[in-house]
């Protein structure tokens, strides 16, 4: 059984080897346990690969490059249209090799979905599964995302659609799926490390993701100024990168807390941060379900996170501090509360570790076999 994945996952060449965005590549590597061949159709970028990138681990996986698209200026935005004919030609040529017993996975939402989802709805022989990784219940989605959700919800493509969370009135072809982020061996290692976490002394905080306003980096820095007793903070680590990094580094110099910006890092370096951290902060404006919450939870890091999309369905108030209002004042209040209630924080940490089992690749593959590939 073959699988063709069509996605917007960035790929790069590093020392002559194709690498891609780490979390997606790790997931694809595990899918080889269910499929004999996997073709991953995705954009190939010219710039240097981030340290978080990974290589494919199996010869079963073949990367098929398509043109990059999108960006800030008008020309870049129009590239979604100008690259469409060539990208569709590549997609079509790969799909011709697949039969009725094979599968296609399209990863949405993405600007490319505006034309790829309709194309797959009418021109395919294989079975289709759409993985919608974004916020399914976004209040004010971009027009392209709104169109893709409308199409998928009405099932014009005749497929299963996996999403983060469950929503009232959800149709039967739309299925709640946990986003995988670790294998059982990694989970066991994380659980062992969590046992050594001490909540009595100074506490460390981490943020993991793109350094941007949308991810709430501005709010974190604002809240650190307002913390009741900053002497209780051992260190704050921002793991990730972005075009505004230098701005945030300058702002952090005025805050009386030790703050580190790591840039992009590999998985082992990230695990060391989780191991040393007590709290992960992610006050995003919008999310699907960020894998970093589940990764950090396995190490006993308690999330202080926006109550958006499906996050509270997986991490309720027994395991997380949920921001109902996404502003620096509420974020400060939640962090102050966590610091002043150490026994509760420790219990929440233990709850996080216990529930992190739902986010293993083994659980994901079993769910795929039971709910999709039937």
Give an account of the 3D structure.
Helix content is 38%, strand content 21%. The mean pLDDT is 95. The chain is built from 14 helices and 16 strands. Helix 4 packs parallel to helix 5 (143-153) and helix 7 crosses helix 12 (328-340). The protein has helices at 22-31, 74-82, 84-95, 113-122, 143-153, 184-194, 217-226, 245-252, 267-276, 291-298, 311-314, 328-340, 342-355, 361-371; strands at 2-6, 11-14, 17-20, 37-43, 54-55, 61-66, 103-108, 127-132, 160-163, 174-176, 203-208, 233-239, 259-263, 279-282, 302-306, 321-323. By secondary structure, the protein is of the alpha/beta class. The longest helix is centred in the last third of the chain and has 14 residues, at 342-355. It folds into two domains: 2-177, 3-Layer(aba) Sandwich (Rossmann fold); 184-359, Rossmann fold (3-Layer(aba) Sandwich), CATH 3.40.50. Strand 15, helix 11 (311-314) and strand 16 (321-323) form a beta-alpha-beta unit. The strands form three sheets. A seven-stranded parallel sheet has the order 6-4-1-7-8-9-10, sandwiched between helices. A six-stranded parallel sheet has the order 13-12-11-14-15-16, sandwiched between helices. The protein has a three-stranded antiparallel sheet with strand order 2-3-5, covered by helices on one side.
Shape: globular
SSE pattern, N- to C-terminal? EEEHEEEHHEHEHEEHEHEHEHEHEHEHHH
User: Termini separation (Å)?
Assistant: 12 Å
Outline the biggest β-sheet. 7 strands, parallel
